[in-house]
Amino acid sequence: LRRSIVDTAPTDATRRRIVLRVLRSDASHLLAFVGLRRSIVDMEELLREDFDVETEIARILAQATTSETKDRKARPRASEVAEALRNALKSTKDARDEAKDLLVETEKEASRMAKEHAALTEQLRASMVQVATRTEKLDSRLGRVGRAANRLGGKLQIVNQEQTMAEEMAEMLVHLRGFGMPDALQALPPLFADESRCKEAARLANKLREIAEDLVAEPKEKKLHVNAQTNRGEVDFETPFSLAVAAENVQTYCYKLETTILGRFEDALQEKEYQTMRDCIDTLQELDAKDAAVQRYISSRPVFLDVPSRLGAEETPPAMGEEVVEQQNSGTIGVAKRRTERVSEAQKKLRRYYDDLLTTMKDEAVTTEEVFPLPAEVMTTLIQRLLEQQVQSTLDSLLIAESGELQDSRYQMMLILMAYKETIDLASALQELSDPDTDMVRIADSLFGGFREHYLQYETELLEEIGAKQFSLKGTGSARYRGSLVGGETERFHRVSVQDLKQVVDWAKDAIDRCMEIFKLHQALLAHNVLEILTVLLKLTASYLNERLQYALQSCESGSKAISRNRLKTEHDMDFPTHFSKKAEALVNEVAEPLLVAVNNTGECMETLHNYLQEVVTPVVKASSATHSQCRHAFADFIHSMEESVLLALKTGATACSTLLDKVLFFEQRKEDFTPSRRTEMDILEPSQACYSCMHVFIEIRRSAQSLLGEKNGTSFTTEVSLRLHGVLMGHIKRYYFNMAGAVQLKRDTSEYLRTMRELGIEQVISMYETLATIANLLLVGPDIIPTVMESIKLPHEDLMLYLQLRNDYKSVKALLSQSGHIGT
After folding, report:
1. Most confident of 192-201, 294-303, 387-396
2. Angle between helices 576-591 and 689-733 (to 10 degrees)
3. 463 CB contacts (<8 Å, ≥6 apart)?
4. Is a pLDDT exceeding 90 seen at residue 536?
5. 544-580 burial by CB neighbour count: b if 16+ within 10 A, else e?
6. Distance CA 424, CA 637 (A)
7. In the prediction, which pLDDT does 434 show?
8. CB-hemisphere CA count at 13 Å for 144?
9. Which pLDDT belongs to residue 323?
10. Which of these, 184, 199, 304, 331, lies nearest to 253 by C-alpha position?
């Protein structure tokens, strides 16, 4: 085993693995032979420092010899394996010692190499620090050198500029001396006399003019002796010359040259020689006279030479007074149609004129592109002049009458809106031809500044006129309108019409839409105008609703007062309830329904205005918090005022209904109902005819209130009527005297009243009518029970005594009560 390990294993580690593998195999066979139950010993424990090979082998052999196995042939084999194991373990231990020595040497070598690497690293770090320091110093030196070079370059550039300026100044002085002679303009230098060199001459003349003006501006006029050196050598002028003469001659030359170039520009403009025009513009630009060419060009345009015709309708629109007469003769539709036709005709003329202007400006854009170096600036000036002069003049002729006074409000408003839209469309189209930085739309919008000041007045006056006409309010024009109403139209005039209000609100919506169009670039003014339109609308509506409510109240009160006995007269037959139900419906329709309809329509009108505020006004004014708050406060004041008016109307209506019920009771109730002579208590099975009539009218009032006012408001109104009816019944009882049969009849009636009131479900009302029923008991019971009944009724003793006096047997009852001490003598 050892020879095989030594021969085949190339390294100590390989030998070690082989030995372990063999030892594991042989040991397992040996232990199986001797029947050992313990596990195979972990061979790595053999590598411990304190492991004794001989002791371990002896232990294994002792176990093998003392084993209970009876196989004698296995013992020699165990000895051989033990010997081999001993040799293998010894070899393994030797290999371990060699590996340990090799490990120690390796650690020493690694420690030495780590020290050498640390030293080398430290040396490299120190070198890098030195390199960085030297690099910084080098960068600093390079920076100083660069700055010095920049300063030197700047000085050289300044020197070059000064030298060039000196040379140019010397040359300028040479030419300036030539212009300083009195006859300089008769004998110009070749440069200034050559027409082919106009651009160069213009540039030089402009500089000479500036130099001469600066020199003349000195405190004292000097005679200048020039000793200048040019690039052509030194020139010495011993002859003095006057700077003032030179400046005057240069200015004269520049003016003549400018005039000549402008004349040449105009000739080329007539012939459409664009290259010549461009050359002239370049020359004029050297003379700082480019604006003169632009102005000359603009003023020569045909669009500024034509006198604009006055656009608009040939006919003078009718005044407000004339319009009313014309409405009576031909109707409103004819006037509106003629007004619309005239506006349409004016729009066609204006649009045709604007189309011509746009076509002309497009042609001018082509010309300026060919001629001017900055065509956008020229077109901007041209278009701005066009808007401020030609378009403004056209708008004045269209929107202002010959006399200078504003025309009919509606016609004028329609013209302004139409002209504004067309003008803004023209400005938007012209914006593409001009400089984007110049807002042509705002310039076009500014043309309407004077008309915009009066526009709100047109809208509010027209809204008031339409509202007064639609609502037929008291005031201007309403009397004539009322006089033309007959029959059913008069009845419609007095009612609250939701449809009429919606038409006025629709016009107010259109008014805000028109304001949004004209004031879209002026949000603050737009919000203010919307507030004014809302204020006028609320004022008109409040006057309209209050007037109609007032008329409904008058109708209700007059209808209640007009009820007579003949109108309520009904035959006393078996079918009385059916007959009177129709009459009750007619009575309620005459007395209560006009008011209830007015209140119901008033609520719908208020809802319509609330929707108008939320959907139309608020989106426009919400950007301005102050105006938005004013709109909400104005509407809140309107609602509060109308709620008070409606509440007062309902209270008055409830009083009128109670008056109607009182008349029904008074006219229908007969004395025989409560003092019958031929009827006994057993014959009285039904309520009286007056009770039937009163309840029919009350039920009809409740039905109408529920139908017209809604469940909640209808119940409140019915409750108010029932409370007033209770007072009516309390007073109605005092009109009659009662015998026993009459008291039974009263008990039947009060039971019917209570039954009807229980259907309302109002505890306060039920309690009051229960008290009314107990009063009937006071008239019905025997004298001996009266004190007990009086104690159960929650009324003052004096009031109970008044009802007690209605009994036919009051004298005997009074005597009995006096004896019992319940009343005084």
Report:
1. 387-396
2. 60
3. 504, 507, 508, 511, 533, 536, 537, 540
4. yes
5. bbbbbbbbbbebbbebbeebeeeebeeeeeeebeeeb
6. 39
7. 86
8. 5
9. 42
10. 184
Residue 533: φ, ψ to 5°: -65, -40
Q: Measured between alpha carbons, how far is 48 from 28 in angstroms, rounded to an integer?
A: 21
User: Do the beta carbons of residue 469 and residue 481 sit within 8 Å?
Assistant: yes
Contact 440, 357 (CB under 8 A): no
- The one-letter amino acid at 430: L
Q: Which residue has the tokens 């000097």?
A: 222
Would you state the pLDDT for residue 315? 42
Name the amino acid, one letter, at 476: T
- First-to-last CA distance in the chain? 157
Look at residue 718 and tell me whether its pLDDT is greater than 80: yes
441's tokens? 């739309």
**What are residue 236's phi and psi, to 5 degrees?**
-120, 120
pLDDT for residue 109: 87
Please give the single-letter amino acid code of residue 325.
V
Strand-pair partners of 714: none
Longest CA pairwise span in the chain (Å): 161
Neighbours of 759 (CB within 10 A): 10
Euclidean distance between CA atoms 676 and 683, whole angstroms: 11
For the cut 70, the answer to whether the pLDDT of residue 431 exceeds it is yes
Paired tokens of 542: 């409040």
User: What is the bridge-based pairing of β-strands 223-224 and 241-242?
Assistant: antiparallel
Dist. CA 55–CA 85, nearest whole Å: 12
**Could you give the angle at the alpha carbon of 485 between the alpha carbons of 482 and 489, nearest 5°?**
120
In sequence order, what DSSP letters do the residues of 516-573 get, joined into one string?
HHHTTT-HHHHHHHHHHHHHHHHHHHHHHHHHHHHHHHHHHHHHHHT--HHHH----S
pLDDT in tens, 392-418: 888 888 877 533 444 567 888 888 889
Strands 233-236, 241-242: pairing is unpaired
Q: How far is C-alpha 692 from the geometric centre of its chain's CA atoms? A: 61
- Specify the length of the chain in residues: 825
164-221: pLDDT as tens digits: 767 666 666 666 666 656 655 555 666 665 666 666 667 666 666 666 666 666 544 4
Integer Cα distance of 386 and 405 in angstroms: 26
User: Which tokens belong to 573?
Assistant: 């037959």
Q: Return the structure tokens found at 631.
A: 């709109």
pLDDT at residue number 333: 56
Sequence-distant (≥ 6) Cβ neighbours of residue 508 within 8 angstroms: 463, 533, 534, 537, 612, 616
Of 386 and 36, more confident: 386
In terms of DSSP bridges, do strands 227-230 and 233-236 run parallel, antiparallel, or are they unpaired? Answer: antiparallel
Burial class (CB in 10 A: 0-12, 13-18, 19+), 614: exposed
- Taking the C-alpha atoms of residue 665 and residue 692, their distance in angstroms, rounded to an integer, is 9
Instruction: Region of 450 please: left (phi>0), alpha (psi -120 to 50) or beta.
Output: alpha
Q: Which residue has the tokens 């402009």?
A: 206
Output phi, psi for 410, to 5 deg.
Answer: -65, -45
With H, G, I as helix, E, B as strand and everything else as coil, classify residue 228. Answer: strand
Q: DSSP string covering 609-632, please?
A: HHHHIIIIIHHHHTTSHHHHHHHH
Q: For residue 229, what is the enclosing H or E element?
A: strand 227-230
Residues 6 or more apart in contact with residue 84 via CB below 8 angstroms: 1, 26
Per-residue CA distances from 256 to 198, 240, 249, 791 (Å)? 12, 26, 10, 127
pLDDT at 2 over 60: no
- DSSP assigned state of 39: P
The pair of structure tokens assigned to 773 is: 């029923």
Question: What token pair was written down for 185?
Answer: 């303009």
Q: pTM (2 decimals)?
A: 0.62
Euclidean distance between CA atoms 257 and 255, whole angstroms: 5
- 4 band by pLDDT with thresholds 50, 70 and 90: very low
Residue whose pair of structure tokens reads 């919307």 in the numeric block: 530
Q: Are 78 and 30 in contact (CB under 8 A)?
A: yes
